[in-house]
Amino acid sequence: MSGTMAPSRHGGHPLDLRLVLPAVACWVSAGVLVGQPRLAATAAGVIGAVSAALLCAAMVRTRGRFVGRPRPGRLLGTLSVCCAAAALAGAVVSVQSPARLPDGVRAAITAHEEVTTRLTVSSSPVPGPRAAFGGAPQVRFRATLTDLEGTVERRSASAAAIPGDPGRTGVAVPIVVFARVSGAQPMIGEEIRLAGTLVATDPGDAAAALLFGRDAAEVLRPAPWWLAWANELRSGFSAVSGGLPGDGAGLLPGLAIGDTSAVGDDLDSAMKVSSLSHLTAVSGANCAIVLALALICGAALGLGRLARIVAGLLVLAGFVVLVTPEPSVVRAAGMATAVLVSGSLGRPGRGLPALALAALCLLVADPWLSRSYGFALSVLATLGLLVLAGPLGRYLARWVPRPLAVVLAIPIAAQLACQPVLVLLSPTLPAYGVPANLLAAPAAPLATIVGLAGCLLVPFLPWVATALVWLAWLPATWIAAVARTTAGLPGSSLPWLGGPAGVILTVACTAAVLGLLLRRTPAVLRILSAGLVCVTVGCTLGVFLGTGFGRAAVFPSEWQIAACDIGQGDAVLVRDGERVALVDVGPDPALLTQCLDTLGIDTIDLLVLTHYDLDHVGGLNAVIGRVGTALVGAPENAEDAGLHTRLAEGGAEVRQAARGDSGTLGGLAWRILWPIRGSPVMQTGNPGSVTILFDGGGIRSVFLGDLNEEAQDALLSAGPVGHVDVVKVAHHGSRDQSVALYAQLRASVGLVSVGADNGYGHPTAALLGVLASVGTAVVRTDQDGLTVVAQGPDTAAESVGAVGGAALQVWTERIGSTRVGDTRVGSVGDAG
């Protein structure tokens, strides 16, 4: 009906593509329409009508004069099924979108008021940045919002009350929660009460809103039994493995059950750079091992075929609950289920149809998975193994022994398939990814199987479980050592184009490499492929060498502003000669220290702490004892005041800043624009962010901290700011911004200090649109890395844009990621 099986050129079973095209159509449709939910119903209707018309045409073609030549009819049938899958995705989006953000929740978001929520926790908490000096840690987790307590007027009129419980509406809004914990962390399945502020996300985000909690959560109801057992196992396993030494202790829970909460930032970065992070993402291999063990045990117990299948599915479901249903886990479980059920019906399942069926079913159930990087990487990695591993193994067997060829083909196939998506996350290529995977591959199954066995035995045989955990710790430590070693080698990350251009180039180069390696490629294509590979390799090595050896020649030595790449947080330097100011210190002292060392900064003459969120003050230890004067906002509690004490003990003069304060930094003049001294409102938190303006040295710049829209409008009302050359965008590019303020600033460059894959959706499309509308070119640390701004040359030929007469040079750490915009900003150095 929907196509045929494509014959394989390399022997073996033909590739069954009948479900692949419908799955792709469903994915594309869902990916587009979740971002435009208002168009989903119309699009579904139109595409559905096209599907019906194509089906009728296919029936006519196959029954008429084309009976002997069915290919046109088959083509129309394939297009009909693809359109039907796309229409189904649109229909699901149109049905689910209103329930994701009902009127009551939307009203609470619009009101910008604190609300008290009832939530059901749906993921394990992930640690956030640590408090600066012993405060309560912050965690992030997914949850389902079921009620806004005490806000009846905000509830959706369409949300029916739950019988017998007039205090609950029965809404189910997927959200991401950011909260402090003072005791036990929230557990999956628990119902909790948490007061905080709701913020809407972009329509295409997996979460409909973000909740920023004020205090620790209160547990209202424990997790049900079918989730509680898994919570106890995870907690027990984490406690046992946490007592082990070194990196293996943090990595082992990730290898065994996908729990990466104990993996430190530096080890996590090393795992990503060395292309080993997939080992801590539970996927097909883990599900296959668990399912195979269940079926083997069932056969040993003498169970019949149907009983073994049922037992296997139950064990698989329990495994998914234990490791939590992350996108990669759900994909793997869906594919395993398809293969198992197909086999029970006497139709041995093949990998590609099972993968396509699993993806299709999951995308129909949850169209927002279409924008999940984790889901995309899981599908692409599996696709690479199914389609590319065999041909690559046969090719490599011509040069190396067959067993080694098979081992080499697996990581190469997965890397080739995933690289187009990986460049969107980080515009680099892992130079040692394949060798690292070869070294780690033998250890991964041992750590996974033995670690999982230890996890299951913790409640029953703790002594045996401890021995198994120690045994699994050995391969986990080996994998961590491989990651750190390869990540520390010279040139571990090669520069690459970012964004859509990088994806297109990656796909083209992948196709070129495959064209050279695989047989039966026409001579003309082989020549073109060889040329493309040579040019790409030459350019990449040239840029890399330029980055390493030519950095001093292209780096603007007379820079004035430098935005450190410190993840989700702010740390921006302003300099005039030997005088240096630092606006905020980011979340991590180690990251800030690395940035200061890179720029050769030893002393901070002026430190500005805009407010006391951890992503702005968590790195303060890096500068204690190195600060001359510190400008701070009003403290909210004793913990905040403790920061002032630590700064003073380190020799700093600490002043509480307010509008009207001013001074100089070398030849630069600075003045405080916000908050207003004595004002009873907007003095603390994000709205009270200390806002400072620097003027001089040819560049006028303003730093907005985390001001929200209301505070930005109040700042504007307090007096005009005027045009600036550089603006440090407020709150990492959240949507809560004042269009009027940015229109008045009309900056040439907008610095967005933001972490990659930050979970907040920063920077938002709304903010990027605002900056584009006023002609501000965006430079963001998640894509561009360390960013330096300097005054441009005086000659007209070299000037690249000006506001108020200042030509700017912008140097970024990563190639191909500087935003040129309307040519008001240029780039030098290895950004090209």
Automatic annotation (TrEMBL):
GO MF annotations in UniProt: hydrolase activity
Q: Which UniProt keywords apply?
A: Cell membrane, Hydrolase, Membrane, Transmembrane, Transmembrane helix
Entry-linked InterPro entries? ComA-like_MBL (IPR035681), ComEC_N (IPR004477), Competence_DNA_uptake (IPR052159), Metallo-B-lactamas (IPR001279), RibonucZ/Hydroxyglut_hydro (IPR036866)
Chain ranges of the Metallo-beta-lactamase domain = 568-757
Cellular component, GO annotation: plasma membrane
Its membrane topology, per UniProt? Multi-pass membrane protein
Name the SUPFAM superfamilies for this protein: Metallo-hydrolase/oxidoreductase
Q: According to its UniProt record, where is this protein located?
A: Cell membrane
Q: Which residues cross the membrane?
A: 40-60, 72-93, 279-301, 306-323, 375-397, 404-426, 438-461, 468-487, 499-518, 530-550
Q: What domain of life does the UniProt record list for this protein's source? A: Bacteria
| Cited Pfam families | Competence, Lactamase_B
Tagged with keyword Lipoprotein: no
Q: Which NCBIfam families match?
A: ComEC_N-term
Q: What is this protein called?
A: MBL fold metallo-hydrolase
